[in-house]
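Technical note accompanying the year-one report. For the benefit of new consortium partners, we illustrate the data format agreed upon in the data management plan: each record pairs a sequence with a structure-token string. No post-processing was applied to the example shown here.
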Amino acid sequence: MSCTGSVSLTRRCFFTAAGLAVAGPAVSRTQAASSTAGLPKAALLGGGDVRAYLLVFRTGQEVMKGLLSFARKHGLVAGHLTGIGAISDAVIGYFDPQKKVYLKIHEKGQAELLSLTGNLALYEGEPFFHIHVALGLRDGSTRGGHLFEAIVRPTVELVLTTFSSSVRREIDPETGLPLLDP
């Protein structure tokens, strides 16, 4: 089974396509240090049980990997995020409920990140981001969908609001997707 193009929605392919780790061996200190290289610059905007972070990504960083690294580093368990910026070489997707697969769209080249919105929850004890984007293309048209990956060019600016009470995802038997289970 391939995890490219139309993706059969197995748990492993879902995580692979979304740039998320599937349970595996423990991370070594060297691997942990290299995994922080993609972290965005961050500033805590507000504290307490609800925290707001300003996250700024720079050219060449990968958005989904950086978010996951940030959430792991700070032990985040629930949240909401929104943002804008500019990216290149994005992979977005559309879920086909009849086929139960994500149809992937590869957007090569530069695009304005008109809107990014999503949430953070735990899935099998790990941070899990579910993010949608609207991209503005050079000709003025737009593309949108589920964000799998995107390279920052020149910046992505996000506000991540986090909560101390965890929110979890569970596999939905009908779709096979890890959906929020409040």
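Partners are asked to follow this layout when depositing records. The longest helix spans residues 63-74.
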